[in-house]
Design brief:
By secondary structure, this protein is α/β, with parallel strands linked by helices. It has a domain of about 325 residues: Alpha/alpha barrel (Glycosyltransferase). The chain contains 17 helices and 27 strands. The chain has a 15-stranded parallel beta sheet that branches. It has a five-stranded parallel beta sheet with strand order 1-27-24-22-20, with no helix packed on it. Strands 6-9-12-15-17 form a five-stranded parallel beta sheet, with no helix packed on it. α6 runs antiparallel to α7 and α8 runs antiparallel to α9.
């Protein structure tokens, strides 16, 4: 991780903490462009010209759209629409999606052909829903609003600004329906769901803002794109290495989410806001990552990457490829190949997503090497240096007795498999506990409700190394098909209180010389790692993620890594991501600490939080997409150098005391 961040910083080695970019906003004084959603007037005219001249690929897409779009479709709107999860218990939901898609297609055909029958088809569908629909309910209500809204709004935008014959009173009724039915649903988004939900709502909110000429609404959606909380926002959905939040779920949902973010970026672009470049072209990174995997390639991943729907291709690639390649001159080889595969059947998407005649000119750049998330931290697939004389423990065999009987300076090796324990293990002094990497899993029995996996046996424990194993804090070692499911379960006080490691000394009996190396601790409701009263602590190349929930004593009290009253500490090349209710790392009352080369992303609170510390060095870290500050540090002799802190909801770097800030890159943070 450290190596990658240094490479990024070389290009801005003399930037101070004050050199930062702000979230783009649409000025209240700037008039909205109309038409101005997926296409502006110039885009529509290009589409019309090329389709009518018979130029490929427009002609083929135009022909397919004509053959698939009826002019006699009779929609069946309902007043009280309801749909359950995955489309179950449907009352009008499928009809809304189908008819909104037809309305958009008909509006496009009206603009190209000028045939009134297409305008009548589109206005007829929109009017039917506008005068009938009163509310959306059920599990999928917000998602339906997000997925259907931008189709209706794009159709309405074309009709309103093309002399289609759409009556003023009908347009007013449509606006009333969108503001009273759709907007209340999407106003606060739904960050508790997987990220494709908020992506769809961001785009629909932008489109609604354009139609209503509401700057505040538009900027609300833009801000969500930059720094959404929960699973919302571009850096929450696409990680620095390109991994998508739903990559462990299935590729239908991955492509859905990517496609909705792409639509939002294009709507913003039409209004003069560049969201394509946010977080170092993060959208491009996600598309290339997904495209490479869907084409059969290997990609870096945290967690078990899904194979579900790997062969299912959604029609989402046209706009992203054309924008990055022809507008930004950025090579998108995998996305380009995916676009070629989907072009044979595409119609509406192709026609509305080519904004310039394809041309090859100038020099094309490649995306920089993947970000820190592409570099493996934590327990690895294979461990090379296992001691031959270690006490070997198979799954099912007692671990505590092996620890108690191990000779001083010896090693207890947990062999591959799931080691289920019914009580926390007490670690004695002068010992190494190791596993065989990711294949060694320490896991509580389901009946255990309040315990820590590893604790110190004596208060003055010393010379202990924990390495090369995985501690699983969830109630099941089975892998969930929904990456958001476990997070929701851990969000409630009724979840079992479980922690990964708790090594605690006292004011008169400190612990000494602790090394934690290449371990993964995940899904604990308490802190993943909590070390208190320690002198000489090294944490190296670990992955502490998804720890720290709303369990006693409440939200914000548990973190991925929690350090209290520690001295002479080094934390480096470690991943501290996605704490549901806490900080990536919390350090209180520490002295002589070096925190370097780490990744602290997508945490509920701060990426790095330090209070009452002395001689603190925060160097070469990535703090991204946290719901509060990227870095917060308060103490004496604090040096914060050469960090990247971006897309955090509050400040990139916050410090109440005078701190030495040098060469930090801050971008697109909130307050």
């Amino acid at each position: 991780m450290k190596k990658h961040i240094i490479i990024l910083l070389l290009t801005g080695a003399f930037l101070s903490v004050k050199a930062q970019t702000k979230i783009q906003q649409l000025s209240d004084s700037k008039a909205f462009v109309h038409p101005g959603m997926a296409q502006n007037r110039q885009d529509l005219e290009l589409m019309k010209k090329e389709a009518l001249l018979g130029v490929q690929p427009w002609k083929a897409a135009f022909d397919r759209l004509k053959s698939s779009t009826p002019t006699d479709y009779i929609t069946h709107p309902v007043s009280h629409l309801s749909q359950g999860p995955y489309g179950s218990s449907d009352l009008g939901g499928k009809e809304l999606m189908k008819s909104s898609d037809i309305a958009y297609s008909a509006a496009i055909l009206w603009y190209i052909t000028g045939k009134q029958e297409y305008a009548n088809e589109a206005t007829g569908i929109i009017n039917a829903w506008s005068y009938t629909l009163w509310d959306l309910s059920g599990n999928n209500a917000k998602l339906l609003a997000g997925l259907s809204g931008h189709f209706l709004l794009n159709a309405a935008e074309i009709l309103k600004y093309s002399n289609s014959g759409w009556k003023v009173k009908d347009a007013a009724q449509f606006k009333f329906m969108m503001l009273t039915v759709y907007y209340p649903l999407i106003k606060d988004f739904f960050p508790e769901a997987n990220g494709n939900w908020d992506a769809s709502m961001i785009n629909t909110m932008m489109c609604l803002a354009v139609f209503c000429e509401d700057h505040a609404m538009f900027n609300r959606a833009v801000t969500k794109f930059y720094i959404g909380n929960g699973n919302g926002g571009i850096t929450k959905y696409i990680y620095p290495g390109g991994q998508i939040q739903e990559a462990t779920r299935d590729w239908g949902h991955v492509q859905l989410g990517l496609g909705e973010f792409a639509k939002a970026a294009q709507t913003a672009w039409t209004q003069g806001i560049d969201l394509y470049s946010v977080a170092d072209n993060r959208l491009a990174r996600g598309f290339e990552y997904a495209s490479k995997y869907l084409l059969g390639g290997n990609v870096p991943v945290y967690g078990p990457i899904s194979e579900r729907e790997r062969g299912t291709l959604r029609d989402i690639y046209e706009n992203v490829y054309n924008h990055y390649h022809f507008t930004d001159h950025l090579n998108m080889p995998y996305t380009g190949k995916m676009m070629e595969r989907t072009r044979a059947k595409t119609s509406q998407v192709l026609l509305t997503n080519i904004h310039t005649v394809p041309h090859e000119d100038g020099k094309y750049s490649n995306l920089p090497e993947p970000g820190t998330d592409a570099i493996r931290a934590g327990a690895s697939e294979k461990v090379e240096d296992l001691p031959a004389d270690a006490v070997r423990v198979k799954p099912g065999e007692p671990i505590q007795s092996a620890l108690d009987n191990c000779k001083p300076g010896g090693t207890v090796l947990l062999l591959k498999g799931v080691h289920t324990i019914s009580a926390g293990l007490l670690v004695p002094s002068n010992i190494t506990l190791c596993g065989e990497g990711l294949g060694t899993i320490l896991f509580f029995a389901p009946t255990v409700s309040d315990d820590i996996v590893l604790k110190n046996k004596v208060s003055n424990m010393h010379d202990v190394t924990i390495r090369d194993l995985l501690i699983e804090g969830a109630t099941s070692a089975a892998i969930s098909s929904d990456p958001n499911n476990d997070r929701r379960i851990r969000a409630y006080e009724s979840s079992p209180s479980r922690g990964g490691i708790l090594f605690a000394g006292t004011s008169d009996s400190l612990i000494h010389n602790i090394v934690i190396d290449h371990i993964t601790v995940q899904n604990c409701t308490k802190s993943g790692i909590y070390i208190s009263g320690c002198v000489n602590l090294t944490i190296h190349n670990c992955d502490f993620s998804d720890n720290g929930s709303w369990t006693v004593p409440g939200g914000g009290q548990h973190h991925n890594l929690r350090l209290l009253h520690v001295e002479h500490v080094q934390v480096n090349d470690t991943r501290l991501d996605s704490s549901p209710w806490g900080n990536g790392c919390s350090i209180i009352a520490g002295n002589d600490i070096i925190f370097s080369g780490n990744e602290t992303e997508r945490n509920k609170l701060n990426g790095i939080y330090c209070l009452d510390v002395k001689n603190l060095h925060i160097i070469n870290n990535l703090a991204e997409g946290n719901d509060q500050n990227g870095i917060y540090a308060n103490g004496e002799n604090v040096q914060i150098n050469s960090n990247i802190s971006r897309n955090n909801a509050a400040k990139g770097i916050a410090s109440k005391e005078k701190a030495l800030l040098q060469h930090n890159i801050l971008s697109d943070n909130g307050m």
